[in-house]
Amino acid sequence: MSTKTPSKADILRPIGTFSKKYLAVYSVAALGLIAFLIAWAYQLEKGLIVTGLGDWGTGGGATWGLYIGAFIWWVGVAHGGIILSASVRLLGMDRYMPVARIAEMTTIGGLSAAGFYILVHMGRPDRMVTSVLGHFHITVNNSPLVWDVTVITAYFVLSATYLGLTIRYDVNRLRDDLPDKFEPIYKIITFGYSEKEDEIIQRMVWWLAAAVIIMAPLLLHGGVIPWLFSLLPAMPAWTGGIQGPMFLSIALMSAISGVMIISYTFRRVYNWEHIITDDIFRGLLLWLGFFTLLFLWFQLQSVLNGAFLGPLNTQHAAEGKMAHPAYQVAMTMIFLTLVYIFLQAIRPALFSKTRALIASCAILAGTLTEKILFVVEGFFPPTFDIYTATPGTYFPSLIEILSLVGTVSLVALLFLNLAKLVPVVELHAIEHLTGDHGHEHDHEETTKTETEPEVKA
Amino acid sequence: MSTDDESFHPLGQEWEDELETMLDDTEYDSDLGMEMAKDAMRVTKGELSEADFHEKYHEDVMDEFGVDDRPTEEAYEEAKKNAGGFAEMLKSFDGDGDESRRDVMKKMGVGAAAVGLGAWGTAEGGQPNVADESGGHATEAHREGDTQWGMAIDLERCDGCLSCVQACASENNLDQGVNWMYVLDYEDGGADTSQNRLVRPCQHCTDAPCEKVCPTTARHTRDKDGLVLTDYDVCIGCRYCQVACPYGVNYFQWDEPDISTEEIAADPENDGEGDMMVDDRDRWVDSRSPRGTMSKCTMCPSRQDGLSGEDKVGTSACEDACPPDAIQFGNMRDEESDPQRYLDNPSRSRTLIQVGAESAIPEVAGLEEDLADADADLESVLEASQDLDEETLQLMKATEIVTENFGEGDADSVDYEQNIIEIFDVLEEHGLDLDSQEVLVGLDLADEPDEDEEFEGADELDAQNALEAFAGTPASNFRLLEDVGTNPNVAYLGNEPGPNAEQVEGPVAYEDTQYERSDGSEPNLVDNRKEEILDEGTVGDAGVSL
Question: Where does the 4Fe-4S ferredoxin-type domain start and stop, copy by copy (chain B) (predicted)?
Answer without folding.
Answer: 149-179, 226-255
